[in-house]
Amino acid sequence: MLEANLDQKKYDVDEQGFYGEFGGAFIPEMLYPNVEHLRKQYLEIMYEPEFQKEFRALLKDYVGRPSPLYFAKKLSAHYNTKIYLKREDLNHTGAHKINNTIGQILLAKRLGKHRIIAETGAGQHGVATATVCALAGLECIVFMGEVDIERQAPNVARMKMLGAKVVPAKSGSRTLKDATNEAIRDWINHPNDTHYIIGSVVGPHPYPDMVARFQSVISEEMKWQLKEQTGNENPDTIIACVGGGSNAAGAFYHYLENEKVKLVAVEASGLGNDTGKSAATSVLGSKGVLHGSRTLLMQTEDGQVEEPYSISAGLDYPGIGPMHAHLIRSGRAKVFGSTDEEALHAARFLAKMEGIIPALESAHAFAVLEKMKFEKDEVVVVNLSGRGDKDLATYIDFFKLNG
Amino acid sequence: MTRIEKLFSNKQKDICNIYFTAGFPSLNDTEKIILTLEKAGADMVEIGMPYSDPLADGETIQQSGSVALKNGMTLQVLFEQIESVRQKSQIPLVMMGYFNQVMQYGEEAFFKKCKEVGIDGLILPDLPAAIYEADYQQLMKDNNLNNIFLITPQTPDERIVYLDNLSSGFVYMVADASVTGKQKDISNNQITYFERIEKMNLSNPRLIGFGIADHQSFSTACAHANGAIIGSAFIRALEKSGNIEATIYDFIGMIKNEKVGV
Ligand SMILES: Cc1ncc(COP(=O)(O)O)c(C=O)c1O
Questions:
Q1: Scanning A11, A288, B12, B79, which has its CA 20 to 30 A from the CA of A167?
Q2: What is the pLDDT of residues A178-190, one digit of tens each?
Q3: Does A65 reach chain B within 8 Å, measured CB to CB?
């Protein structure tokens, strides 16, 4: 079971909301009451027995958890090691995002909020938020960059079908970072009735910690599933893609303090890290403040946030969560980058080998299997964060599948 | 004493503080705007450092910031412009911007540079009070810079006292729960909030900003505080302007409801 773990640990958030030097709440005063209210209450609310009961029941009966841990036999043979897939793609709505939105919607109700806002890039978090709002009967407004609305049309339609209002973010570069800005501005304008469901382990404290805790169900299940299947609850290596970092945070969470477990974070390198078209924040970024937390972000010499690039809208973000900034800078997690092309080929390879079409985001994690060296009996878990339905148009284009 | 503190020791009522985004409408308008604002009767000028992701700002200031950045505005250019303005004017100057810009410049280097070019105070809305207190309060003092915190209608009383104690120069009263640039009349709820703060006897003077756009809202704000800050309305006037100087005289005249200038 999830437990409020308040002992200070090396990779856990501290009292002030910092992971090492990263994190905190760098927010304008207008947001202070809401964020402070949340900070004071989130742990207490999350670990109330009634809350846990409701949360667990929904994860089981509505989301379909536990998600399977699948031993990928052919993939394992190919890479000459033991590869397990954590099947977050089988969750309702098709990705890990719903673990967090189920948790936050229950929290929002207990906070007495009846208007829900969210940002979305690929639309996965938007769909997961629209879904839980329908479930809870709460008003839902999703901010989405104008550019993303165009490139993720099916998810826009899904959100609308679920009763959400999709508001185009027209400022800045009109993608995920700007959708996040618009959501934050909306929250400033609605200080009383609104809860902001952030979709990743980003934003001001307590968001990164809260989202990580909701997503930690992933590694919680991995532990007993591995024990069942291998006799040992600890894998040797866990690989996950990182946009903001919520699926990786969930997959790493219960192994953070066990330094024998290697953690591998995979960023999107777009067209390549030296092309100016990349989203590999930990390589190209530097310390700064983005969306309310001190973290690593891609920026100009003058401190203007730079627009990242990745074929995958879910990884197309100029920052990373403060927890990952700390894991990476402290050496606890190792970082790899996968380019657009590497991810596309990895997606096709997984489809052919195992009959699973991954989301483009998750495909970035699989591409790393090509670059890493494994022992024969090493246990490697790849977090398969989402399914590829939303990316079919991209796959069709690239692999000329309709010819 | 900073120029801000001097101003308030000479004048406690009807302070008119005008915000503009540096680099808008064109890159080199900074000097003309500041000098004309002073001639037209503004008491203080708040210079916005244009930023890619201004969280607390509405559309008008966002747009002006994007234009300014496209025009090539950078901190280095801005500091040079301010240094040159300072040869010609002693009007109190406040810089407003987001903390990331300061971090990237280097906090200490930034404060030193501000002092060197003649900036009197800073408004960094996303710099947390506790971090300011622990890491920057002394540095800013050493560089003769006022640090101005925001309070809002939702800020609890004890936090207002805390922020007032941490502030110097003045306290920025955000008029309403909103980002900058919302145009609407001042409501009774807002008046109640203004009066509540008036009664708290803060140690700093108070200026009210956000949504102040015309003579009526300006005089209402002035009736409950030491003055007001006008931003988006001024940017909107500049957007439409054919002649910046004439626009500024007209604008200040409209705000004060008197004939100003030449
Ligand atoms: C399937 C999938 N994986 C990963 C991500 C990236 O987000 P995070 O890094 O928070 O897991 C997204 C975001 O949209 C996603 O849809």
A1: A288
A2: 999 999 999 999 9
A3: no
